[in-house]
Specification:
single chain; Leucine-rich Repeat Variant; about 50% helix; alpha+beta; elongated; binds zinc ion; 2 domains
Length: about 350
């Protein structure tokens, strides 16, 4: 196999492992039989990541022969992946025991074999209700497959709900790192992506004041990306730069929900709009700011259409806003002169 082809298949195996898609099984099965040990190893690893999503028995059947692979790293990753399948991997226990006893087996392979064997046996004990393992986050007793899956992924015990949260949290951090490149817009604002640069430049060209907050925080377990805030309009702009990535998408929907609950107005721009981002921004802005005066005009020209004290806000805060408290927008405005405003996230 030539290097380019091997690289392509390796990338494919990795992507399938991140896909959280049960339909990838047949393709992964093919990749476990690749002539490239690298591809076989990554395919085994991907199967382990899909534990709880793909068919367990079929996956174990695919992984077991890989325990006898000529390449130690393939054996190692097959053992690791089997651990993730918990009780379903019981038929592999004798194979794992043989590997452990084999004096010729590599130490690093044996370490993975021991870990996988322990996880599978503990999952069997949980299934037989001879023991109870509690979720490290919420304290709920976990099922055998929940135990195995989270042990494999995090070396911790989580229930499925907390597993998803922890998984997403981690992924969001990784996504953030990927996005955490700095790009300077023409007006000097340092932003994190080319899309954000276009937004900053277009806002500047339209004479709209904005703040770009590049601080980064975790809200309810979600990593929140920097965004634009338009104080004149009490409006946020979010550029969703990786909407093709499933986990990013989940995080994006969560964040949009948080905005809504906090009564914030958000203008969303998406990666697929990137080729015509300036036009998309202008179009959506005009929709959001239908009732707003041009930026240089005095605010609240038409008081009847705006709640008192709010500048050019074309809609009342949604039901999620807490009465009696300042809206986040009001808090924002009060702190508008502070370089790093608090209270922006719920
Ligand atoms: Zn839990």
């Amino acid at each position: 196999m030539n290097v380019a082809n091997e690289r392509r298949l390796a990338a494919r195996a990795t992507a399938l492992g991140e896909s959280a898609d049960a339909n990838t099984f047949a393709e992964l099965a093919g990749l476990t039989r690749s002539e490239s040990p690298l591809v076989r190893r990554l395919a085994a690893s991907a199967l382990g990541k899909l534990a709880g999503i793909v068919d367990s028995a079929a996956s174990v059947d695919l992984l077991r022969p890989l325990l006898g692979d000529l390449h130690p790293q393939v054996r190692q990753y097959a053992a690791k992946a089997l651990g993730a399948f918990g009780t379903a991997a019981e038929p592999a226990l004798p194979d794992l025991r043989d590997m452990y006893r084999n004096p010729a087996e590599r130490d690093y392979v044996k370490r993975s074999v021991v870990t996988a064997g322990k996880t599978i046996r503990e999952a069997l004990r949980i299934a037989e209700q001879q023991t109870v393992q509690a979720c490290r986050k919420c304290g709920r007793a976990v099922a055998a497959d929940e135990y195995a899956r989270s042990q494999k992924a995090f070396q911790r015990t989580f229930c499925d709900v907390c597993f998803d949260e922890v998984f997403l949290e981690r992924r969001n951090w990784e996504t953030q790192v990927e996005l955490n490149k700095t790009v300077q817009a023409a007006n000097g604002t340092v932003v994190q992506s080319d899309g954000e640069r276009l937004i900053a430049e277009e806002l500047a060209a339209m004479g709209i004041a904005f703040r770009y907050d590049n601080r980064f925080r975790i809200v309810k377990g979600y990593a929140i990306r920097p965004d634009f805030y338009l104080p004149e309009f009490d409006l946020y702009i979010e550029y969703w730069g990786m909407e093709d990535n499933l986990d990013y998408r989940i995080g994006m929907l969560e964040k949009q929900k948080l905005y809504q609950q906090a009564g914030k107005r958000v203008l969303s721009l998406y990666a697929h709009e990137r080729p015509r981002l300036r036009e998309a921004l202008r179009k959506k802005l005009s929709r959001h700011l239908r009732l707003a005066p041009p930026p240089e005009a005095p605010p609240a020209r038409n008081a009847a259409e705006r709640p008192p004290g709010r500048v050019a806000s074309s809609s009342p805060p949604p039901a999620g806003a807490t009465p009696g408290e300042d809206s986040p927008g009001q808090q924002q405005r009060r702190r508008a002169s502070a370089p790093t405003p608090e209270g922006k996230c719920p």
